[in-house]
Each structure stands twice: as structure tokens, then as C-alpha cells.
Amino acid sequence: MTFRIISRTDDRTDTKTLAIPALDRSISSPVLDTRRRGLHDLRISVTDRCNFRCTYCMPRSVFNEAYPFLPHDELLTFEEIVRLAKIFRAHGVEKIRLTGGEPLLRHGIEKLVAMLSAAVPDAELTLTTNGSALKAKAHALKAAGLNRVTVSLDSLDDATFRAMNDADFPVQRVLDAIHTAAAAGLAPLKINMVVRRGINDGHIIDMARYFRGSGNIVRFIEFMDVGATNGWKMDDVVPSAEIARRISEVFPCAPLNPNYAGEVAKRWRYLDGAGEFGLISSVTEAFCGACTRARLSTDGTLYTCLFAQKGYSLKSLLRSGIDDTEISEAVQSIWHHRADNYSELRTAETAKQKKVEMSYIGG
Fold this sequence. Notes:
It contains 11 helices and 14 strands. It is of the alpha/beta class and 363 residues long. It has one domain: Aldolase class I (TIM Barrel), CATH 3.20.20. It has a 14-stranded mixed β-sheet with strand order 2-1-14-13-12-3-4-5-6-7-8-11-10-9. Strand 10 and strand 11 form a beta hairpin. The longest helix is centred in the middle third of the chain and has 14 residues, at 171-184. The radius of gyration is 20 Å and the shape is globular. Residues 5-19 have low confidence and may be disordered.
């Protein structure tokens, strides 16, 4: 069996064919990779567009008016997304997350949620958003079958937040959206804060304080070298161990066991019972050995690592007329041969490599 392998950089897309050995042709079969890692999470990017220009994700100097975003006919259709979701569910996926870009910019996103909810009702269905359109859509998303939502929020300080999103978007509108989503039943929400030294690390305690006791969970994320446009430097990284120490000095806390094998966030609980927070430490505490995530880009390319340099075009298979069993075999084979461990090997030099951009695969 052969199919296209796509290597995407900022300025070109290269294609070639790659032979994939045949495996078990069963359409329903869990699969392990070369390191015995299963397939638990599927992240599906539904658009490469976003109304924010966060400096660590889509810096305005690159993603400007001249940037060639994908034309609509290059995006996977809702029907194609659902078809793939069913195949991945048969191979063990238990959680499906819709991402972007900003997924709420995809026209009819509520319809896609409803289609997925009906097609894979036993999978957890979640969505990550910058919160800009969440207040208006929260109730419709819940009614369509969305289970939970994650909101990116890098500071409670308005000036810092506006500077980081580089779209002059006020923090209060995101906070209002979080409250609306919680009231709509999309709880507990997870709040993602990407921490950069000298930029917003002075607001870690404020973030912990604000969401303590709310039922929602803040995750503090180390600044990562995703893609090749965010100017990543190790000096900008605030290690998770330092974040935990800072929080514990104000709010005594202790580690918790993970909810499931391969969970990327290390859980911590407040000793006074005011809930929990999470730490995502891809830089200083690589968790490659337990990674169970696959990522499907906006144009239907499958990536097996957040820091991948190449991906596999499932869209070309979908539009070639082959049946689900053959697509299932391709997915199974790709995962079976997966050996990714970028974070375990990260150096200053590998950080400069051309890698897929976060806005293309949703982080």
C-alpha cells in the first residue's frame, strides 16, 4: 500500500509516496506504536485561521495580510472529519478535541459537533478556543453534544493579555465567556496559560488565586518550540517545578495521580480542598514515553507528534475513493511505525528545525 507523505514548511509543501506494510485489515483494532504507546487522543484542527495573533503561536510578523491561509476546498469537510473520527475511535481513541486556529471561526461548527456526537457517542468530545466567540456559542455547543471546553488565557492583567494576543482583545470578554460556558454545562473548564519568563510569569499566582474554588482547572504550560516562527529560547521557559514551587509558597498543594495513562498535565491539588491545577512540562520533563496523541491538520494531514516535520495525507486517501477498511489499515500502519520522541532529544539546534506550526495542528 502506498500513499502520500507530506512535509510542510512555511514556504513549501513537498510530497512523495511512501510504502506502508500491510497490517491487520480489521477496521476495529487497538494499535500500539514502536514504544508500546496506544492511541487515546485525537486532535482535529478545523481551521488554520485565527482572530488572535498570539506571539508564541501566530506572530503577526509571519501571519499577516499576505499569509496564504488554506482555501476552503483544501479543508476537510464535516463528513470527512466524521468518517475519520469513526475510524480512529475503532482504533482506541477515547477523546476527540476540536482545535484550530480558532475552531469557533469555522462556519457551522455546532453542526460538526452534533455530527460527531451522533457518530462517536462513547468518545469524549472537547474543544479548545481563545474564548472570543465562546459566550455567543456556548449553549449551542452544549446542546449539540460538546462535553467540555478548554480556554486559552495567558494573563488576567488586561494590558498583558492584550499584548500577548496582539489583537487588542480585552481579558474581561474571555472571563465572561468562561462563566457563560460553565453555566451552560461545559464544565469543568480547563484554562491554559502559556508561561513566558519576563512576559507573564509574574501573573501565575493571580491566575491560581482567581480559579481556585471555581471548579475550573488552570493548566500552566511551559513555553515550547512548536513550529519555527515563535522565537523560542530556553531562557524564556519557566520550568514547571518552579511554577509548582511558587504556587505552593502561597497555596499549599500536593501532586495527584493522573486521570488516565498518558495524561499530559501533571495534576496538583490544593491542600485546603479548593480544587486542582495542572502543569504541562514538555520542555523540562519530557513525557514522550507516555504520549498517546495523534493530530489531524486542517487539510487532513495526520501528524504523530506536536513537533513533527512531516505528516501523512489522509485527505488524499479519503478523496481517492477507497473504502474505510483501507483507510483504517493506513492509520493502523502509521501508528504502528510511530517512534516520535522529540522532547526527549530537544536541543537548541533541534529547536531551530522547520516543524509544523501550532496554528496548523492546534497544539
